[in-house]
């Protein structure tokens, strides 16, 4: 079996963006602590040599402040830390324990915040500096290194520096663990959303299959009956069969249109052709198709209310709202209109059904959502009507929302833009309400 060549990972274990702020705050605090320790050493010994450590401390502090809001990688900061800290240790003199903790800090920080290749560069650079300091300390005891080493900062200073660096390493590890936990939570949430999407897709496919199968079965049955018994069937039955087939064909057409409009809306590729339309005429035309034979409904939209809208999409909005009211709205549907503000007209579809529970009033506008789902779903539909109606309304510059109807029932309202006045047409005037007679 051929072995794959080893490749360094191209990303860090922890996103630098996740730890940029706490990491650089920690660097700044550590730099200030190191400078304070140098001042304490000066006060205790009276020797000015410890004050030299303020210079590398200041370099780290300035770099940490700058990197709080800039740079997309910890690489430069760690190189600065390595250079400044080992320069401070060169001034300090031989201190193997501090050298080891500094190297540990750089190793941990680089391993968590950098890709493996860059982390290796930082660690190699730090090791090189450590080796250089060890060589200098062993060969040039009469230099400033030796002078500072003889002055010393005492065991207390050494312990303070070791504790400070150890706390820094621990803080980096805790911050890394927090970042990992956040990443795990985000991954779990993404997986849950993915599972929900799969469930919705499966349920959607199931519902669409059912919705398509029902009218197709009816059309196929009536087609076979007419084909085999055309000459012997009474004309009344032939007309009845053809009427049913026409209704089922319209149902299929509407279902396919609802399914296809969603991706076009989401992709921003749905073309709208706004024209001047008489809102009352459009409302009555759709209502007569949804309630062809029975049902209490009334339309109280004044004549000559001229709106600017895409006719196909306006009728699609009305159809979805009226079909929803027919399925869930009891035995009375009211379609009313009123001026909602300058240049805006509001149409509402009210019913005397059970209404919608408070917790479901936003969920019903999500794709594929129904108040009854799965095997217990009693109504037809694929849960697209209300989401499509809202998206289409907003695409034409209006909005669609739910209102509670007193004392019972639901009211769905949507706004549509009024067309600019046409001087060649008469001024709009209200007319008597159109009442659908009882069947």
Structure description:
- By secondary structure, the protein is an alpha+beta fold.
- It has 3 domains: 175 residues, no CATH class; 59 residues, Helix Hairpins (Orthogonal Bundle), CATH 1.10.287.130; 162 residues, Heat Shock Protein 90.
- It contains 11 helices and 8 strands.
- The strands form 2 sheets. It has a 6-stranded mixed β-sheet with strand order 6-7-5-4-2-8. A two-stranded antiparallel ribbon has the order 1-3.
- The C terminus is likely disordered.
The succession of helices and strands, N to C, reads HHHHHHHHEHEEHEEHEEE
Uncertain runs: 139-155, 370-382, 426-439
How would you state the average pLDDT, rounded?
Answer: 77
Largest sheet: 6 strands, mixed
- What structural class do helix, strand and pairing data support? alpha+beta
Distance between the termini: 80 Å
Shape: elongated
What is the total domain count?
3
The helicity comes to: 55-70%
Question: How large, in whole angstroms, is the Cα Rg?
Answer: 38 Å
Beta-strand residue fraction: 5-15%
Q: What is the overall number of helices?
A: 11
In what order do the strands lie side by side in the largest sheet?
Answer: 6-7-5-4-2-8
Count the beta strands.
Answer: 8
């Amino acid at each position: 079996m051929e072995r794959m060549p080893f490749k360094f990972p191209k990303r860090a274990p922890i996103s630098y963006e996740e730890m940029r702020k706490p990491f650089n705050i920690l660097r700044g605090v550590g730099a200030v602590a190191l400078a304070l320790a140098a001042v304490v050493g000066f006060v205790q010994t009276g020797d000015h040599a410890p004050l030299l450590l303020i210079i590398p401390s200041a370099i780290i502090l300035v770099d940490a402040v700058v990197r709080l809001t800039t740079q997309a990688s910890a690489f430069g900061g760690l190189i600065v830390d390595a250079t400044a800290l080992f320069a401070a240790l060169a001034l300090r003199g031989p201190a193997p324990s501090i050298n080891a903790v500094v190297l540990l800090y750089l190793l941990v920080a680089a391993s968590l915040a950098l890709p493996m290749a860059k982390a290796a560069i930082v660690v190699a650079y730090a090791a090189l500096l450590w080796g250089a300091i060890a060589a200098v300390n062993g060969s040039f005891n009469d230099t400033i290194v030796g002078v500072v080493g003889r002055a010393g900062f005492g065991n207390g200073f050494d312990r303070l520096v070791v504790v400070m660096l150890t706390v820094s390493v621990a803080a980096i590890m805790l911050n890394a663990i927090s970042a990992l936990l956040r990443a795990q939570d985000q991954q779990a949430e993404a997986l849950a959303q993915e599972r929900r999407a799969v469930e919705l897709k499966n349920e959607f496919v199931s519902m669409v299959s059912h919705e398509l199968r029902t009218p197709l079965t009816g059309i196929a049955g009536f087609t076979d009956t007419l084909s085999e018994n055309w000459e012997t069937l009474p004309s009344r039955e032939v007309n009845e069969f053809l009427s049913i087939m026409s209704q089922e064909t319209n149902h299929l057409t509407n279902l396919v249109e609802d399914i296809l409009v969603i991706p076009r809306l989401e992709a921003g590729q749905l073309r709208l052709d706004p024209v001047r339309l008489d809102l009352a005429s459009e409302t009555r035309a759709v209502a007569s198709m949804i309630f062809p034979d029975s049902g209490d409904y009334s339309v109280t939209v004044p004549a000559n209310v001229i709106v600017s809208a895409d006719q196909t999409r306006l009728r699609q909005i009305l159809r979805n709202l009226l079909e929803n009211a027919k399925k869930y709205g009891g035995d009375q549907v009211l379609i009313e209109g009123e001026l909602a503000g300058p240049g805006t007209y509001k149409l509402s579809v009210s019913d005397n059904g059970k209404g919608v529970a408070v917790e479901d009033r936003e969920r019903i506008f999500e794709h594929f959502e129904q108040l009854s789902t799965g095997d217990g779903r009693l109504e037809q539909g694929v849960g697209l009507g209300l989401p499509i109606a809202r998206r289409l309304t907003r695409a034409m510059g209006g909005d669609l929302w739910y209102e509670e109807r007193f004392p019972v029932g639901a009211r769905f309202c949507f706004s549509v833009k009024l067309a600019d006045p046409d001087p060649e047409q008469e001024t709009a005037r209200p007319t008597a309400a159109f009442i659908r007679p009882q069947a």
